[in-house]
Design brief:
38% of the residues lie in helices and 13% in strands. The protein is of the alpha/beta class.
Length: 367
């Protein structure tokens, strides 16, 4: 069998290694000039020059953004159940109640109609997730939020550089959280970013990430150690120089797969969306798990299931989560059917053809 094709692959080159070596040689490893430069460059390239604050993970970005927006004990926050658990974890960590709603079947993102139906007198915010790199319908969601005086925190963990109606994700709400985990479209090794147009929210996040200090030993509020190191920022700065090119290749790889695959339900892109294909997700209605196993065992092709269990049914939330707004049929169907295929930018044409041949063979076999 030919070499295995993993479902995801961190891309680290000589530029990242040289950048890390330079920081190590400097002896200044903690949050410093590399972090400040990374914030400026990330903001300029990916969020239309909105202020951004670097933190040590995407989960920290969500957590600190919610705190800075004033979300707290007993507040209700509407979230999709079809997402990574960090989205709802952050809501719980600030003492608020996640209210789980259904998704749109085409985009896998939160359904604006479901959000509108879930609003109560206790609702303070909505967290749309730009899942797999496809933006949520921010026009409808912002309209719903503004009509009910709700805050909007974009979970853009998987959507670096994506656009809705021509505007970058991360610029469409009151704040946004990005992840820089190794398998994201770009990485800092580990880390996150909070973007916000609000000077007050920005300053509060800066305080919260650094023990409540803007000036050393002058703690203004109770905070955390959620700082990004200069080592991580140096990796992120090197990746920023590549991410737009990588994204273009991801989109090209996705287009090739869409043109060649048969027998599975292919991803769609909303006319107002620019999808950055963090994941290339198809649906396999019959025996998805068997399909995943066969891709690996018979063809050496990795596939991922993101996500097999809706958040409201995870052990960490069952019995102690907030309300589930009615049935979530699209969430349940997606959890049973979705399958992510490799789409990362270093795939060769030969590897893409292997993926196509394997999927088409298995789909034709009726697995």
């Amino acid at each position: 069998m030919a070499d295995a094709i993993p479902v995801a692959k961190p891309l680290i080159g000589v530029e990242e290694r040289r950048a890390v070596d330079a920081v190590l040689a400097s002896g200044a490893l903690a949050q410093g000039p590399e972090v400040a430069a990374f914030e400026r460059e990330f903001g300029s390239l990916l969020v239309e020059a909105s202020p951004v604050v670097a933190v040590n993970s995407g989960t920290a970005a969500l957590h600190l953004a919610l705190l800075a927006l004033g979300i707290g004990q007993g507040d209700e926050v509407i979230v999709p159940s079809f997402t990574f658990a960090a989205t709802a974890n952050a809501v719980r960590l600030v003492g608020a109640v996640p209210v789980f709603v259904d998704i749109d079947a085409a985009s896998f993102c939160v359904d604006p109609c479901a959000v509108a139906a879930a609003v109560t007198s206790r609702t303070r915010a909505v967290v749309p997730v730009h899942l797999y790199g496809h933006p949520a319908d921010m026009d409808e969601l912002v309209d719903v939020a503004r009509s009910h005086d709700l805050l909007v925190l974009e979970d853009a963990a998987q959507a670096h550089g994506a656009r809705w109606s021509g505007a970058r994700v991360g610029t469409l709400g009151d704040a946004a959280a990005f992840s820089l985990y190794p398998t994201k479209n770009m990485t800092s090794g580990e880390g996150g970013m909070v973007a916000t147009p609000s000077p007050g929210v920005e300053r509060t996040v800066r305080l919260l990430r650094n023990q409540g200090m803007a000036t050393r030993y002058e703690n203004e509020i109770v905070g955390f150690n959620a700082r990004m190191s200069d080592v991580h920022a140096a990796i992120g700065r090197a990746q920023l120089r590549k991410v737009l090119g990588w994204t273009a290749q991801r989109v090209a790889n996705a287009a090739y797969l869409t043109g060649e695959l048969r027998g599975v339900t292919l991803p769609t892109v909303h006319p107002l969306a620019e999808h950055v294909f963090h994941q290339y997700v198809v649906r396999v209605p019959d025996d998805r798990d068997g399909f995943v196993a066969a891709l690996d065992a018979e063809y050496g092709i990795g596939a991922g299931v993101y996500y097999p269990t809706p958040v409201h049914r995870l052990p960490s939330f069952v019995g102690s989560s907030g309300p589930v707004c009615g049935d979530l049929p699209e969430t349940e169907r997606a959890a049973a059917e979705v399958l992510a295929l490799p789409v990362y930018p270093t795939l060769t044409l030969q590897q893409l053809d292997r993926i196509v041949a394997a999927v088409n063979a298995l789909a034709g076999a009726g697995r």
